[in-house]
Amino acid sequence: MEVDEETGAEVKLEKAKITLNDCLACSGCITSAESVLITQQSQQEVYSILQQNQDCRKFGLHNEVKCVVVSVSPQARASLAAKYNLSALLTAQKLTAFFHKLGCDFVFDTSFSRDFSLVETQREFVTRYRSKSALPMLASACPGWICYAEKTHGAYILPYISTTKSPQQIMGSLVKDLFARKLDKTPDQIYHVSVMPCYDKKLEASREDFYNDLYKTRDVDCVLSTSEVDAMLETEGVNLSDINAADLDGLAGAGELVSHAGGGSGGYLEHVLRHAARELFGLQLNELTFKTLRNEDFKEVSVQHDGVVVLQFASAYGFRNIQNLVQKLKRGKCKYDFVEVMACPSGCLNGGGQLRPQDDESSKELIRRLGGIYASVATRLPEDNPAVETLYREWLGGRDGVKAAALLHTTYHAVNKTVNALNIKW
Asked: Whose CB among 12, 62, 94, 333 lies 3.0–4.6 Å from 243's, allowing a Cys bridge?
């Protein structure tokens, strides 16, 4: 609404629409093909699949009913917990009940797939460090950062990025391969929805690298942001607090709620650092002491052995810090061995798809509260999860096999810029 300066009356404004013609064509955002793919990922698409399932059951077409699996990220869960004043566990249980009532079959927590992502990142770093190749290794869990790297810095920066898939995409491998086999279904018979804190996860799910040509299906069919799930609650006319809690579903064994130490973006820096110190130098690290650099979103930590600094790690959140990091790397002045890179300032808890502050709460206060909720969940080292070791052996045929490489790792692609300042419509 706006107030007419002459009459003082309130006038309803038309909804703003931004098209690709409004883009500055810096190649840092999305292409027209990507924008089409994103429109296919919304709560309306989920409702459409659930309605199709109802129709198929009604007319006896049971073979055409898709098994609907929902994977919820811990950051999205924390955001909903903050809004509804619930604990992390209660939020997980109530979300499970909500999605079951809608007609979804299973609801999983992506902390399980993050176990694999952390283990693979740890192993990849140790391998690179020993061979002194492609260092610093840059974390790969953030799709906004990956998109920026591919479209802005291309072939120069891509070799430094970890090839390990993000938790979302490893969950896609788990659901469409392992879980599909468990249910005696083909990948295309499962509709996989993930609930994520940022919209860039929609782009990530849409990558051709995560498309199964044989079954014509994606590892993750639809990505919903936290705010979109909250909109679904409003559509259904229910308050999350009022929903009866349900038992958690488990992808491999009983359902449980377990997290990882190291902050609200997955803890890649801390887990890789502790593992590398132990594996490479036989060091058991106690509490880590971080040094804040330009701002709170750029920190570093180092490990000494026999009085010599042997490991230097950093976290760089937000594009201002990412750009500084890339420039240092290009000038050969980057001293780090590993960097946890996230596009959003304050990391994944502050993702663009998260719920915004309410009432008089500031963004910083909300982030602080989200951090507390996120950290309230008991943590476990990924390698201490017995199901992980079992699945490496029984599902992947070993840690170093072809299947492990195919299902847990990916590749990146430099995007050629085809637009210049001369043909931009200003």
From this structure: 94
